[in-house]
């Protein structure tokens, strides 16, 4: 597990080069790759850039999957047409993780129809990613205030996400585990038992507002880890550590206030919180 | 399609013999069988009773399935132990339809787990019913105010219900089609296209309150058919008639006020509404 | 149902223009479209050609689906890249039916894995075809001598094929019904009951060798319809006619001897057999 | 892993008391429970008997599941009626493992229909067993000479069996791993990677005839472990040992010749082979 600077997740508008410098300056272990930036560099420029990032002691976090999983077929097809160019850049950079989230509801497709749509498309995309040596992370979304907003709720729990991943039959698909979704899904540490590093592509750490009931928590209104103590981060981190997880961990609080504070102050805090989380996880796993 | 007196659906506390007499007196085409009453009569008494009911010109509606589909395994097993005695009575009476509803949410089982539970148990129960010449009706439940009340929404649409029925692989399982669930599920007449008599075990007719949004409609607070006009009963009845449906149709308004009025007055109204519905369906199907 | 000349199905090496002329000369109702020929003409040339074909009184049969459903992901993706150009030609020609067969076994993927592969890919392809107004026919393969040749048998029955089609959720996918596969799958007319025109994209008529047991019949060694009488073509044609089937019917005997005979003699025989089949179906449906 | 005497698996006709004595005399670690014998003893007699067996230093192997999983529904229901009496005896004895095999083909039900049948029934039976603290082992059957004998092949591989077990959603269902089925299914040690003790209920060790091709091996014509060396028992035992497997291991060669030899001679050989296997597994796991 290594701390990662993901400007987008923090709501910070940083260009990629600055993000790399700030990640190094603030002691992050990694930084999220930026496919748009790679496109401006081309494959060989991207490879050079990646070498510089590595020299700064940084690993790559996770890029966004450039394929809209539940788009209309024509749009999905177009993304497949464009995919090889993106994969060439990611490969040149040495990026090994891309990810996306699963929309937890649908106005037209019921649970089983939507499952088939996702299963089929994820299987195909995963196979194309595998040829490029890239793993795919899938994030399930927990808040009831989101999954209950359309006619057909969809995957909004860890067990469902794991079954979907198993059904893709792909060895390179795993979870994006976000403590916020785990908590709002009504899950606890027992459900993380037995997870392995191979099943986890990325980890997000967040806390929740203390003044809201579980079913009232909002997807886009979270708190920094260890802030309210609403979420059992000790249990979460112990499980992730016990899984032997080796990938990126980031914070994604959707707090607009972060963008209003001095960026160095914010990143000092974020980096410190992630370091604390890694320590908490290691301690908890040891004590167990 | 024949009108049926179902005292329970109307919230009327009538003993079975009186219900039979009232059904005949008020011109219903049928009356719901009462397994509890059959138990007091035994198989041969039940056969005699059924002959009398037939002599009054009444057909049997639908009995309740005496098996709790989603009970703990031990309780479900016990219901299977007890099932043959109930089937012997239903067979003696000449009842050919039993039914139950599908709970549209679960606190522990997610959609796919709950699907498997239902698929497996319904398949088994259906096979046992088939040996007795009895069909099983399944009712999907539409109101969001119900399906959104626990962690995992389950079947709450016609398409899901039909897929579940198809997966049971049983030729004797069909739908209980209730206009209230069809409406609250956000469905319209197009979705009833192509239904056949073999797919429908029972039909319920209800209207909805005019002062509530679709997603605010309550399962237990409905209106009598043709009352508010909120529900497209013409479209519903046209489709059911076009399907060549030959079974019972009843009203299930969950209006406590019915039990407070004189029973003869209530049944005159109900019987008249059902006759009107049958006429509306026939006219609509003809015009089409 | 209209008779169709499909040179490939007959093992005849005819260029497309000659096939069109021969189809017209021998009284066929239609001819199979030839995508390779359309490619040489381009979209507007194809439209002109199609107008000429129509003027000769011929309808289009079914084109081959230019997507290998179970190819490695990269190859499948490439076919999707190329698909729009093919669809533009088919659309220009007014072709509305394409089809492919389902390989009934796999050396690596077991039944459920292979099902998911097919479900996902067919759903995607069907949606892309639907945008072009084209239906997709899927042919299940019956002979045990084929499905038993690798580690994992796959779909080799009508019921499985229909379930797969239902799971694609696509309104434009249907069956290619071949009497040879229906027979070798051990099926009879009862299993064709209730089929509708919307479920059938193409029909193939063949008979089987009389000197082989059912399980010994070979996929590529068949007989002309009505030759041996091994296959119940009356029952098959009655069901297809009762379904109100409006599409192409062809013969696909895989008999090398046809290519050795004078082509006019062969086509006279084939056209006559198809006319006879259409009459047999109409008579049988009427008598029933 | 402990060696177990299973007279039935060896084709020996030993009454249960004698089997217990022989198991102790020949140094087996366990003996298979005999439900028929328990029935003659009743619950308290069974408890006393079990205490004696434990005093001889023997553990219980696995009893046969007294429920025919794919029987007609009425027969399956009757087995559920009778199940509690059997479970009371098994519980009194302290037996914690029962098992059955999955018939790898069906004349009427295709793969998906048969899957649903098994999934539903196993889920129900497993829940009833769980209430009694008993685990259920399922054995997949590998030989093509068996799975190809009817219209619809069914589960005949490890992966399928594991998916079925996962779909039961039961924590007390696992595999009966038989080296003979693993081999004839075309599997190798890689496919056993990552197995855990919780996934294995029982282990069978057998070798295969050297004079037959893989696809010609017969289910009921095997060889004693280490006899021909056709089966990679080292790889198999290494994986089972690496899984931390703690349950019974037996030999099930279906060799009629065993019953013709002096029983003590046979059991000396069998016990020795099982001891050798346990040593081989430990050595292989250590070396790795």
Describe this structure in words.
The structure is a homotetramer of 288-residue chains. With 288 residues, chain A is α/β, with parallel strands linked by helices. Chain A contains ten helices and eleven strands. Helices cover 46% and strands 14% of the residues of chain A. In chain A, strands 3-2-1-11-10-9-7-5-4 form a nine-stranded parallel sheet. A two-stranded antiparallel sheet of chain A has the order 6-8. In chain A, strand 4 (63-64), helix 4 and strand 5 (97-101) form a beta-alpha-beta unit. In chain A, helix 5 (111-131) crosses helix 7 and helix 9 crosses helix 10 (263-287). The radius of gyration of chain A is 18 Å and the shape is globular.
Name the strands of the widest sheet of chain A in spatial order. 3-2-1-11-10-9-7-5-4
* Category by helix and strand content of chain A: alpha/beta
Assembly state: homotetramer
The percent range for strand residues of chain A is 5-15%
Note the gap between the termini of chain A. 19 Å
């Amino acid at each position: 597990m290594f701390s990662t600077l993901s400007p987008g997740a923090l709501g910070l508008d940083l260009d990629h080069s600055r993000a790399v410098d700030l990640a190094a300056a603030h002691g992050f272990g990694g930084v999220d790759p930026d496919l748009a930036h790679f496109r401006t560099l081309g494959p060989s420029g991207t490879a050079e850039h990646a070498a510089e990032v590595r020299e700064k002691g940084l690993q790559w976090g996770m890029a966004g999957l450039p394929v809209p999983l539940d788009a209309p077929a024509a749009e999905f097809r177009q993304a497949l047409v464009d995919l090889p160019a993106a994969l060439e850049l990611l490969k040149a950079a040495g990026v090994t993780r891309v990810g996306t989230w699963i929309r937890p509801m649908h106005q037209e497709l019921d649970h089983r129809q939507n499952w088939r749509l996702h299963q089929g498309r994820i299987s195909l995309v995963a196979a194309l990613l595998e040829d490029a040596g890239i793993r795919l992370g899938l994030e399930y979304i927990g808040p009831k205030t989101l999954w209950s907003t359309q006619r057909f709720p969809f995957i909004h729990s860890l067990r469902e996400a794991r079954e979907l991943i198993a059904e893709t039959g792909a060895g390179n698909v795993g979870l994006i585990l976000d403590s916020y979704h785990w908590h709002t899904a009504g899950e606890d540490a027992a459900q993380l038992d037995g997870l392995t590093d191979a099943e986890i592509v990325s980890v997000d750490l967040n806390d929740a507002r203390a003044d809201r009931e579980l079913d009232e928590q909002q997807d886009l209104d979270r708190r920094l880890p260890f802030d309210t103590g609403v979420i059992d981060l000790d249990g979460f981190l112990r499980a992730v550590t016990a899984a032997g997880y080796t990938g990126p961990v980031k914070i994604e609080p959707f707090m607009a206030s972060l963008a209003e504070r001095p960026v160095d102050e914010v990143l000092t805090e974020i980096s410190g919180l992630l370091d604390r989380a890694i320590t908490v996880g290691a301690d908890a796993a040891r004590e167990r």
